[in-house]
Amino acid sequence: MSADAGSPAQLKIWHDVLHTYLDVLEACRGEEAWLTFESLASLAPPHAHEDPRLLNIGLNLLSQCGNEDTAPGAVRRVFASLVSLSRPVAKDTARTVRKLILMNRLSDAMYIIDWHIRQYWNHGAPPPSRGLMHTVMIQMKTVEQVLRMRPPPLPGRFTATPGLYAEYAAALAILGTLLSENYLPLVPAHKEDITWLVKHLTHFYTLDYDVPSASDAQASIYRAVPEFLHRLPCGRDPDASDIKARSSLPQPSCQADRAEFFLPVLSERTYNVLVQYALQHDEQPQWCRLVLEHMVHERNPPIVPDNVTANILLQQANKRHMHDLALHALEWGACPLSPDEPSVPTEMSSQRLLAHLDDAIREENIFRIEGLIYHFVQSWLQCYERPDGVPAMQVLGRLYPQLRQRQASHISRIACDPRIFTASLYLAARSNRKGLTLRMWQLMKDHCDVAQQMVAPESATVFMNYLAHAARRSKKHVQSNGDGHAQQLCRLALQEYAWLLEHWSTHDQHPPARMLVDDIYALKLSDSPRLRRVIDATRMVLADTPM
Q: How far apart are alpha carbons 110 and 174 in whole angstroms?
């Protein structure tokens, strides 16, 4: 219509056109109906008087699009026409949106939710309910699990398909954009926070689907978290006296103000996910520092890094060989810092490090014990390259006193954890002490037999790699007994490998035993024809073993 669409004459014409179209819409169905509705929206003058009948017909038409197998984009086009003709609130569309979510039409559902969330921040409209956002979370988690596990088709169950992946990616891209533009979170951290969303965004790349139609959504997802890291919610009070003295007050429609004043602050769980993402997925120490500084200094109220944060930092510091970060993690875990001024030593004595281990054992902190063991291996363990380092027995003796006493004694519950067994065996192997490594391996085997616990494949791989390394090292020495020692290690490897196969066969789980066979070949433990025949026979057995 013309620029004079607000005149009484033009409004009268619009009124007549509107009711004519509404009468037609009540009589038609399907594609004809939503095309007619779209045509009506193109004729609407700006600031036209809203008609209750128009809103009801538009909502019914939107519901029909949700019920039927409509053409791609139909829901979005009908909703775009509806918001240009009327102003639906979140509760008006909640039923249709929930139906779309449960039908896995996630991108259409999030298109509507996205509009309502932006209306909430920019125009003060009611936000989507917590119940609806909870439905989004549950369905997104369910779909992500199906896409990750790729289960076989079952009656009444949906399966992983390229189409489902495209829907999930499109919906996650919308959620990621809302997050990066500081429209989320909507609720305080002590309620249903956004940790799940951050996890899905940071682990999206591991789904590994090749769907060209989802390329734009993928690119948007990969940008979301890095952008969000640079504008995390602060939780400052917009009604504080110094803020009210400003010439312009904070506005929810401004992104910077939303981040500083209006968004609920993040929970400890969300910060921990962001710390792990910064170090593990993108290897960005400066991003990690950004998150930690915000956590301790910018957030209101601040959060002091806890044991979980310290364990994440220690684990990633070990993987990245970042000694300074490991020192920070150890001191944070032992004595939480004041938010005012962190104080972390640049060096640490071996006794201080052993004291950290004693504290972690007393607190039964599995992840901290594991991280400390690997840190000892990297920086402190006595070995060929570090003759003045900490002896392996000073570490392992604290967890397994029987290694030192050479007699049976009780093993603490925490020391029997498979992660601790694997880390301890790795430390013994890296110390290049054959006797200690064999005793550690036998101790683990005996415990698993008594407790009817399966030896972890990771532990078996550590032990086999140790035997392979020792055999290769023995062959390098030009000594009369060098070859004999190497063959002895080969026989031991095959003997323990046979024990593992028998041991694993008594459990329902079937670890990747074929990996060990391949390792024996790759590490040249199968030099003799007799050993090669044994391994080949084992391969035939494994061919019938479910993996």
A: 7
> Which amino acid does the sequence have at 538?
T
Q: Is residue 449 within 8 Å of residue 506, measured between CB atoms?
A: no
Backbone angle region of 51, left / alpha / beta, with phi > 0 → left and psi within -120 to 50 → alpha:
beta
- Residue % of the chain over a pLDDT of 90: 48
* Helices first, then strands: H and E counts in the chain: 26, 0
State the Cα–Cα distance between residues 427 and 432, nearest whole angstrom: 9
- Radius of gyration, alpha carbons of the chain: 31
Rounded to the nearest angstrom, the gap between the alpha carbon of residue 219 and the centroid of all alpha carbons in its chain is 18
Q: What is the DSSP string of 114-158?
A: HHHHHHHHHH-PPPPPHHHHHHHHHHHHHHHHHHHH-PPP-TT--
Residue 48 has pLDDT above 80, yes or no: no
Question: What is the Cα–Cα distance from 295 to 433, expressed in whole angstroms?
Answer: 44
Question: What is the pLDDT at residue 68?
Answer: 67
Q: How crowded is residue 29: how many other Cβ atoms within 10 Å of its Cβ?
A: 12
Q: Residue 213 phi/psi, 5° resolution?
A: -65, -15
User: Residue 382: is it exposed, middle or buried by C-beta count within 10 angstroms (0-12/13-18/19+)?
Assistant: buried
Closest of 197, 225, 327, 233 to residue 282, by C-alpha = 225
Residue with tokens 């694993």: 504
Instruction: Give CB contacts under 8 A, 24+ apart, made by 338-344.
Output: 338/304, 339/296, 339/297, 339/302, 339/304, 342/296
Check whether 525 has a pLDDT greater than 60.
Answer: no
For residues 367 and 174, what is the distance between their CA atoms, to the nearest angstrom? 35
Say what the pLDDT of residue 516 is: 54
